[in-house]
């Protein structure tokens, strides 16, 4: 579903991604771990061209990532993205936030879009909040709206860029539970996260990044019990000691 071959990304003289080669099959859940500045979010953002790359190839479901224009917009409609910040439209109700994309991009009729929106809001547990505005919801509720909004486009793959890092601790689990449900339903997912419990329980694979490179690619069991690189051992030692 996701294929990256020889991807390199620079910010001026700084190399953010170094020779990234990655394949994510349909239905697989991949969690990307690593210290701050290791390239995790940049990797995530290149997959739907929020960040351009200097070299290499990226394809979604066999289709090379277009440069720009309508073809890129169509591909982005197939790739749901959930960010640290919820990026909801503050002047629109929750229901309208979820229906906007399907009506504008997928050309759904308003009644069909609203029916789908309510079903998705029910799925993430906040259908009773559909008439409210984002500022009236908690952070956890807003992030669940953001997930519903991404799902409303019927994406082939979902990208999550540290979706719980801006949340209060008591709100983290409600978002992770929605993500775990998606994983159980077979959604292809790439998740940048520091949530070790989620990675252990839900991931099919764990990628560990350091200095812009994928240092380890292993099952959760192998990664957490017997990491092979000194960087991963050091990272886990610091994280799991707390």
From TrEMBL:
Domain ABC transporter stretches: 2-236
Compartments, as annotated in UniProt: Cell membrane
Gene Ontology CC, one term: plasma membrane
Keywords: Amino-acid transport, ATP-binding, Cell membrane, Membrane, Nucleotide-binding, Translocase, Transport
Catalytic activity: a polar amino acid(out) + ATP + H2O = a polar amino acid(in) + ADP + phosphate + H(+)
InterPro entries per UniProt: AAA+_ATPase (IPR003593), ABC_ATPase_HisP-typ (IPR030679), ABC_transporter-like_ATP-bd (IPR003439), ABC_transporter-like_CS (IPR017871), MetN_ABC_transporter-like (IPR050086), P-loop_NTPase (IPR027417)
GO molecular function, one term: ATP hydrolysis activity
Stored CDD domains: ABC_HisP_GlnQ (cd03262)
Topology with respect to the bilayer: Peripheral membrane protein
Record EC number: 7.4.2.1
Pfam families: ABC_tran
SUPFAM superfamilies in the cross-refs: P-loop containing nucleoside triphosphate hydrolases (SSF52540)
Main location per the UniProt record: membrane
Family: Belongs to the ABC transporter superfamily.
Family annotation (PANTHER family): AMINO ACID IMPORT ATP-BINDING PROTEIN (PTHR43166), GLUTAMATE_ASPARTATE IMPORT ATP-BINDING PROTEIN GLTL (PTHR43166:SF9)
Protein name per UniProt: ABC-type polar-amino-acid transporter
Originating species: Corynebacterium maris DSM 45190
């Amino acid at each position: 579903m996701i294929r990256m071959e020889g991807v390199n990304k620079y910010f001026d003289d700084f190399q953010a991604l170094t020779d990234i080669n990655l394949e994510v099959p349909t239905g697989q859940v991949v969690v990307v771990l690593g210290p701050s500045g290791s390239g995790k979010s940049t990797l995530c953002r290149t997959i739907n061209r929020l960040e351009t790359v200097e070299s290499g190839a990226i394809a979604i479901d066999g289709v090379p990532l277009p440069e720009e224009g309508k073809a890129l917009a169509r591909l982005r409609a197939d790739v749901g993205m959930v960010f640290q910040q919820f990026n909801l439209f503050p002047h629109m109700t929750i229901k309208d936030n979820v229906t906007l994309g399907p009506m504008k991009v997928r050309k759904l009729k308003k009644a069909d879009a609203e029916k789908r929106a309510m079903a998705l809001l029910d799925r993430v547990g906040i259908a009773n909040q559909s008439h409210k505005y984002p500022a009236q919801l908690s952070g956890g509720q807003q992030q669940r709206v953001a997930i519903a909004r991404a799902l409303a486009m019927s994406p082939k793959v979902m990208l999550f860029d540290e979706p719980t890092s801006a949340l209060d601790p008591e709100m983290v689990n409600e978002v992770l539970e929605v993500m775990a449900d998606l994983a159980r339903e077979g959604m292809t997912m790439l998740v940048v996260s520091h949530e070790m419990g989620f990675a252990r329980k839900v991931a099919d694979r764990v990628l560990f990044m350091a200095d812009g490179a994928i240092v380890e690619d292993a099952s959760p069991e192998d990664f957490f019990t017997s990491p092979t690189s000194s960087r991963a051992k050091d990272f886990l030692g610091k994280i799991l000691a707390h």
